[in-house]
Design goal:
Pfam families: PMEI. By secondary structure, the protein is an all-alpha fold. It is 82% helix and 0% strand. Helix 1 runs antiparallel to helix 2, helix 1 runs antiparallel to helix 4 and helix 2 packs antiparallel against helix 3.
């Protein structure tokens, strides 16, 4: 999924960047995406059993995790990482899920 790819990307960026601030931000994003992946997996399980309230709750949790990652990059140094684009895409998908559920 997009979330799993973002988790892999965040981990990779955290390992390869030399900037200590960015390393911390990417590591934090990796933790957020790890939780978001778990939330999305739970949403899939809830959907399979028809628990739309559960889908809504865990999808909201995933969005919070994604927001947490995005918030890390409000302050300089600025980055143009694919990770931030993935954040927006995943949030858009979560918004669609929330509307449907």
């Amino acid at each position: 999924t997009n979330a799993k790819k973002s988790l892999i990307l965040a981990n990779s960026l955290a390992k390869t960047t030399t900037n200590p601030q960015l390393k911390q931000r990417y590591s934090s994003c990796a933790e957020s995406y790890d939780a978001a992946v778990s939330d999305i997996e739970n949403a899939q399980k809830d959907l399979a059993i028809g628990d739309f309230n559960g889908v809504n709750i865990v999808t909201s949790g995933a969005m919070t995790e994604i927001d947490d990652c995005q918030d890390k990059f409000v302050q300089p140094p600025n980055v143009t990482s694919l990770l931030l684009k993935n954040c927006k895409t995943l949030k858009d998908i979560c918004n669609i899920i929330l509307v449907i559920s």
